[in-house]
Inverse folding.
C-alpha cells in the first residue's frame, strides 16, 4: 500500500514512524497546489491536513482508496466526488478538545492579566527602579462573578463552560445551530449575550449561520472592557471590524484563527494602535504535543481499518 503524507510540517516533531508499518510511505513537509498531482499518483492512501484534494486529483489517481484528513474539518476535500468514485474519506474528531480548551484560558489570562505590559515592565528595568514592591498601574479582575458567554456549546464550548464555572463565572451560551440545549447553562440570544457578558468565547464552526456573525455593529454593542476570544474559525468575527473598533472602544480580542492562514502581509490587525488590547496566536490551539500524538495515532488507525 502506497501512503503519501502531503503536509507533515503541520505535525511538527510528532513521531510519524507508525506509518512505516502500513506500507510504502512518502512524506512531504509541504505541498503546493501544483505539486499535488505528481505526488499522489499511484497512491492508495493520502494523508492531508490542509492540502486541497479536488475531483481532478481523484480522477487522475485511479489507485486511490482512502483520503485521511488529519483534522476535524473536511472542507479541503471534494466529498461529493470522493463518494461518487467510491473513495473513503475519514477525519479525526475530538483529538484536540482539551488543547483548545486550555488555549482559551491562555488567551484570556494574557489579556486579563496584562501579561505583555508586566513582562516588559520587569525586563525593561522599570521594576528595579520602583519605589514600591509591586505595580498596580494596570488593574486586572477575577473571573469569579463575571458573566461568560459562549458562542457554540459543543464539546469544546462545554469544556470551557465547566472550567469557567469552576472559577466562579456565571455562564450562558448562544447556540449557533439552534440545536444545542442544556439545563446546565442558560441559553440566550446573541444580542443579549453580547450586551451583558464580560467574557465572550467562540467555539463554533464556520458555516452560513456563523459567517461574519460578529461585525462592527455587534462588537459595538459589547460591554466596556469586554474580552472576545475566537477559537472557532476565522470569518466568524470580521477582522476589519476588529481592527477598527479596538482603537475606538475599550474592548479586548484574543484570536487564534483568521480568515486567511497564514496571515496576509499588511493585515489591518498589524497596524492597530492599541496593541495591548489585541493578542493573536498562529492557529496553535489544537497543537499540544498530546493532541498531535492522538491525531497521528487516530489517522494510523483509520488506515488500518481500510484492510479490515
Amino acid at each position: 500500500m502506497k501512503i503519501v503524507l502531503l503536509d507533515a510540517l503541520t505535525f511538527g516533531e510528532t513521531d510519524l514512524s507508525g506509518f512505516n508499518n502500513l506500507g510504502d510511505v512518502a512524506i512531504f513537509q509541504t505541498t503546493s497546489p501544483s505539486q499535488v498531482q505528481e505526488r499522489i499518483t499511484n497512491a492508495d492512501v493520502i494523508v492531508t491536513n490542509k492540502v486541497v484534494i479536488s475531483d481532478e486529483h481523484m480522477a487522475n489517481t485511479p489507485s486511490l482508496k482512502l483520503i485521511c484528513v488529519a483534522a476535524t474539518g473536511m472542507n479541503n476535500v471534494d466529498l461529493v466526488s470522493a463518494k461518487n468514485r467510491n473513495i473513503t474519506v475519514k477525519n479525526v474528531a475530538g483529538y484536540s478538545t482539551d488543547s483548545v480548551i486550555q488555549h482559551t484560558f491562555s488567551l484570556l489570562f494574557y489579556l486579563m492579566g496584562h501579561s505583555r505590559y508586566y513582562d516588559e515592565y520587569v525586563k525593561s528595568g522599570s521594576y528595579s527602579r520602583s519605589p514600591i514592591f509591586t505595580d498596580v498601574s494596570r488593574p486586572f479582575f477575577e473571573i469569579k462573578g463575571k458573566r461568560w458567554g459562549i458562542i457554540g456549546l459543543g464539546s469544546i464550548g462545554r469544556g470551557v463552560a465547566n472550567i469557567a464555572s469552576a472559577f466562579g463565572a456565571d455562564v450562558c451560551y448562544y447556540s449557533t445551530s439552534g440545536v444545542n440545549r442544556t439545563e446546565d447553562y442558560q441559553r440566550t440570544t446573541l444580542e443579549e449575550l453580547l450586551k451583558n457578558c464580560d467574557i465572550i468565547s467562540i467555539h463554533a464552526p464556520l458555516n452560513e449561520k456563523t459567517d461574519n456573525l460578529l461585525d462592527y455593529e455587534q462588537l459595538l454593542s459589547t460591554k466596556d472592557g469586554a474580552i472576545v476570544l475566537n477559537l472557532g474559525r476565522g470569518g466568524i468575527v470580521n477582522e476589519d471590524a476588529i481592527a477598527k473598533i479596538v482603537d475606538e472602544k475599550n474592548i479586548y480580542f484574543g484570536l487564534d484563527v483568521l480568515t486567511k492562514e497564514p496571515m496576509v502581509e499588511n493585515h489591518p490587525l498589524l497596524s492597530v494602535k492599541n496593541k495591548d488590547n489585541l493578542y493573536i496566536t498562529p492557529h496553535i490551539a489544537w497543537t499540544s504535543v498530546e493532541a498531535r500524538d492522538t491525531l497521528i495515532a487516530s489517522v494510523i488507525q483509520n488506515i488500518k481499518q481500510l484492510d479490515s
The two ends are 14 Å apart (CA to CA). The first strand starts at residue 2 and ends at 5. The chain has a mean pLDDT of 96. The longest helix spans residues 289-307.
